[in-house]
UniProtKB/TrEMBL annotation:
Biased composition (Basic and acidic residues): 43-58
Domain of life, per lineage: Bacteria
The name this protein goes by in its record: VapB protein of antitoxin of type II toxin-antitoxin system
Region (Disordered): 43-66
Amino acid sequence: MAQITVTLDADLAIEVMLLSGTKNPQDAVELIVRDFLARGRRTEARTGDAADAQRADSPKPIAQEG
């Protein structure tokens, strides 16, 4: 897997470490990013995608009178 280097402000790195409960800032950022991506996938699975929105907004059939 390819790796990149990201420079963060020290305060931001410490905050991420506290949120993730790790002692290594690199591991902390990786955990936060992985959680963010997993949360996005779970939300997408629940709500669907743009094509699902069009299907939900289709006009309702008009009741026949008479």
